[in-house]
Specification:
The protein has about 220 residues and is an alpha/beta fold. It is built from nine helices and six strands; from the N terminus they run βαβαβαββαβααααα. The chain has a six-stranded parallel β-sheet with strand order 2-1-3-4-5-6, with helices on both faces.
């Protein structure tokens, strides 16, 4: 049976590669959308069995789009693509995802048939009690120390790291977290210690933390 998919990816180059690869493997791509706000309109005209969403640009919007797609079609399969080995790095937790979601770490998938398998499983897992299925296992790096570092960081530390990388000042982070600036400074210090980062006159701590964050989510530099 031919499966029709709708691909949502704000990165035009990556979406072109993914679309071409899927078509070569016999997957029918109903459409490719580069803006989350246009997904609802496309869904109204197309009837895809599976929605594939790259979530790195705005994970919260990606989840909202997926939930709205499920309201329109409770049987639609959902596949999320991400560079982040820990979803907290993109501002969400696993429990926020709809049921039966397949999450694929881009750097962990070298065989495109893995993506095809995830597409098929996304339909089968809709009624699954599990919240999601990480594709290709639970460890997404050849360096186990890297994974253990992420696991050692608390939710507060990862959220603070993400906000620092997004350019938020300590006072802005304090307002968001409803804590004092001193508490934010303490959290940043703990993050630096956990990541074994030492600031120096040439690169301050915030720059070093931002670089580390963007390296982890597969981006060479700040957007």
């Amino acid at each position: 049976m031919t499966i029709r998919i709708l691909l949502v990816d704000e990165n035009h180059y990556e979406s072109l590669l993914t679309e071409s690869a899927l078509r070569s493997l016999g997957i029918e791509v109903a459409d490719v959308v580069h803006n989350f706000s246009k997904v609802a309109g496309v869904l109204a005209h197309e009837s895809p069995e599976v929605l594939i969403i790259t979530m790195d640009a705005d994970a919260i919007k990606a989840v909202v789009v997926a939930e709205k797609a499920r309201i329109k079609n409770p049987n639609i399969g959902l596949v999320f693509l991400t560079h982040a080995p820990d979803l907290r790095l993109v501002g969400i937790s696993e429990k926020e995802l709809p049921s039966g979601v397949q999450v694929i770490l881009k750097s962990a998938v070298t065989d495109l048939h893995v993506l095809v398998d995830a597409i098929h499983r996304s339909i089968d897992d809709i009624t699954s009690r599990g919240k999601l299925r990480w594709v290709a296992g639970a460890t997404f790096t050849d360096n186990e120390a890297f994974a253990s570092i992420l696991q050692s960081l608390t939710h507060v530390q990862i959220e603070t790291l993400r906000l620092v990388a997004m350019g938020s000042s300590n006072s802005e982070i304090a307002r968001i977290r409803l804590v004092t600036e001193k508490a934010v400074e303490h959290t940043i210090t703990r993050i630096l210690q956990a990541l074994s980062i030492v600031s120096n006159p040439r690169h301050n701590a915030r720059v070093l933390l931002s670089r580390e964050y963007y390296r982890w989510i597969g981006v060479s530099g700040e957007n």
